[in-house]
Amino acid sequence: MLVIGLTGGIGSGKSTVSHILARLGARMVDADIVGHQVYEPGGPAYNDIINTFGREVVGTEGKIDRKRLASIVFSKADSLEKLNDITHPRIRDAIAVILKEWKSEGTEIAVVEAAVLFEAKWTNLVDEIWATLSDESVVLDRLFKAKGMSPEQSRARLRSQIPPEEKAKRSDVVIRNNGGLEELEKQVEDLWRSVNSRLKGSGTFSPNAPS
Ligand code: ATP
Hints:
Order of helices and strands: EHEHHHHEEHHHEH
Shape: globular
Number of domains: 1
CATH topology: Rossmann fold
Largest sheet: 5 strands, parallel
CATH class: Alpha Beta
Number of helices: 9
Distance between the termini: 21 Å
Strand content: 5-15%
CATH superfamily: P-loop containing nucleotide triphosphate hydrolases
Structural class: alpha/beta
Bound molecules: adenosine-5'-triphosphate
């Protein structure tokens, strides 16, 4: 089974590319969704989060109140790092379990969508890395239209991650996404064809960026 890690900066088109890949037949796992599961009561990060941040983060039905947790995490130095130290390895383990199962089922291509693939050091979960990359002006425009985020909010989010160009440099394939949806679809379909012919041993792999 080939495991592709799909990453990229905020608003660069990861989810859009994920949808295209799913339509083409890839099996997709979204690290954000797995991330939510580790916080659930009985989930692998639940007790450690309460022990670290206190019972005040527990909301209704014993669930961790993400808003309360966020307000603590973003108000105290080192807290975000502490939270990531708890959650990232657990999310990684949960994704590894899913991938193992898919492999045993004979899945050919699996894609892990993870905005924080590099930040969380999950790169060794995947065989190759694809990154979506868009110009900052395009990202600001998209995030304003899609989420009502101001340019200042978007820039602050961008600055809190590894710079998108750096992610692209560290990836095997770069999906440039500054145009329309049709252009993006064509690019992803071409990549899909190339990855499939590579798997069947009938094609050559020519990544469009150095790893
Ligand atoms: P985030 O990190 O915020 O989750 P993302 O990298 O997953 O973002 P998307 O959600 O795929 O990015 O894209 C952000 C917004 O831009 C969405 O509303 C999406 O529909 C739109 N979008 C992405 N690519 C294109 C494109 N090529 N043409 C038009 N709209 C696009």
